[in-house]
TrEMBL record:
Taxonomic source organism: Acorus calamus
Gene3D superfamilies noted in UniProt: Ankyrin repeat-containing domain (1.25.40.20)
Cleavable signal peptide: none
SUPFAM superfamilies (UniProt xref): Ankyrin repeat
Name of the protein in question: Ankyrin repeat protein
Intervals holding ANK repeats: 72-104, 105-137, 138-163
Keywords: ANK repeat, Repeat
Origin: domain of life: Eukaryota
Keyword Metal-binding among UniProt keywords: no
Amino acid sequence: MVVALLEMGADREIANGRGQTPLDVARDKGHKEIAEILERGEMVLTAARRGDLSLLESLLRKGGGTGGRDQYGMTALHTAAIKGHRDAVCMLVDYGADLHARDREGHTPLHLAVEGGCLGAVEALLDKGADVDARTARGATPLYMARSMGYDAVSQLLLGNGAASPSVVSASLHSSSLSSS
């Protein structure tokens, strides 16, 4: 049950009225197996953030899930992507990480790979099927982010993979807002 909740995005960092996280409660109540599951999930996030492939693979083989989230709603795939850890990105997707998962601001792993200027991670995510035109909660696409940050090579890669040009996106948004008025 704990694994299923974590895979659905349950927040392992949320505290109860006493300021205790689920891990704190599991330890206090002597639920060793649950504590190990929660710790393993945290370790997957840490291994992904560091790009530690041997630890990451070991954790994933032992059932460490890919859907756990940090305090910002980021999954292990988000953290590997923003840090530019291409091989970790590929491994996580191969183990079932959600390419379309969104953090609290609506960023997909592709948005964060772009934000980090990580050409290799962007390429890996696109090769694995990431949505090249995904929008954040504020409406930013990966291409918009790449252009606004001056990442020309990333912009070209996104365009080469079918990203809609910002002028096309603006025109379609403008016409849809006119038709709904």
